[in-house]
């Protein structure tokens, strides 16, 4: 006998998800950390879902095939939707290279709260120059198959709510641009 669906009520205070996507080393985690500090300083409930951390915990058994990447992003979206449903703010910083997976996350979260897609649109050469882990060099030397931007594609979002060019915008300016976008879209969110 199938299990009946569980109806989970939505919290009275609408939550939000800020989903940062971009190439590896684009600056997603740096901006996400600054956003987290901005919200915490205002006593707002924040949950950070960083791609590297999620990959070592929630999705540790997954590889880097398209199917595994999509499943990883669906998991991130599920957790973010639960945070959002309960009035919190989820900040997701993931490469999330495929458009359809990002759109599926947007559809899920918009049922329970606000969703802001942020494209951290840093140029590939800038990402390679930053590369703190040496991953681009390893990928170019054939040591990392399925590496986004080198041997695997990155589908830039056409539906981004905010586009951040880290070659032109400081981290603080990026945070303010994202927060302003959230203020416009997050009707029903309780602001301090």
Question: Topology of this protein?
Answer:
Layout: E1 15-21, H1 28-40, E2 46-50, H2 51-56, H3 66-85, E3 89-93, H4 99-110, E4 113-120, H5 124-130, H6 135-140, E5 162-164, H7 171-185
Parallel strand pairs: 1-3, 1-4, 2-3, 4-5
Structure description:
- With 192 residues, this protein is an alpha/beta fold.
- Helices cover 41% and strands 15% of the residues.
- The protein is built from seven helices and five strands.
- A five-stranded parallel sheet has the order 2-3-1-4-5, with helices on both faces.
- α1 (28-40) packs across α7 and α3 packs parallel to α4 (99-110).
- The longest helix has 20 residues, at 66-85.
In short:
The protein is of the alpha/beta class and 192 residues long. It has helices spanning 28-40, 51-56, 66-85, 99-110, 124-130, 135-140, 171-185; strands at residues 15-21, 46-50, 89-93, 113-120, 162-164.
